Amino acid sequence: MLGDEGSAFWIAHRVIKTYLDDDEGLVLTSFDTSAAKKAIFDYFGLRHNVDLLEPHYHFEKNYYSGLCQKIAELARAGDALCRHVFYEAGFFLGAHVMAVLQKADLSWRMNSEGVNIVCRGGVFNSWDLLEAGFRDRVTPDIETKKIVHSIRLVFITSSVAVGAALLAAHVKFHLDLPRNHSYQLLAEFRA
Fold first, then answer.
1. What topology does CATH give the domain 8-190?
2. Which sequence spans correspond to the domains of the chain?
3. What's the predicted TM-score (pTM) here?
4. Which domain of life is it from (predicted)?
5. Which residues, in sequence order, are CB contacts of 148 under 8 Å at separation 6+?
6. pLDDT (tens digit, 9 = 90+) per residue, 63-88?
7. Which of 5, 39, 75, 145 is the 20 to 30 Å CA partner of 164?
């Protein structure tokens, strides 16, 4: 899973691993894992730690990632472990963005209009939990290192099928159709 940090799968896996490592004494955590354990066990229908083998050996990423929604609920209710993992996820998402941008053409990334970053996936429904980590990661690169003039995170609300159809029309029939996607502005970061 190269480059999956910050995804719903990564968040679910990180919480499971933190709980399991702590419970088995491998790596102790300062966080209370009891709420995470209950969410994990309820979501996967488990009775014992060994039952965690099933969702890992018969892996379905979409189903596994669905645990992220339960973790988000715990985070919003104040669970410190879940809030921390979402902070880390936001930080990693910011790191991914900055890693790509620092290798992009300088004139493009320093354009006064800034760079739009398209956010896709259910994890962005939890932007309120990701934002602090993301902000803490990108702000120094924007304000001090001047890697990019500004970035706008946009969450596309139209179906991915629309984008696929537009691309197919362009490639197959050389049609340049309007690309007026519906989107929601998640955040903007400026120098």
1. Nucleotidyltransferase; domain 5 (3.30.420)
2. 8-190
3. 0.89
4. Eukaryota
5. 98, 101, 109, 110, 114, 115, 141, 142, 191
6. 999 999 999 999 999 999 999 999 99
7. 5
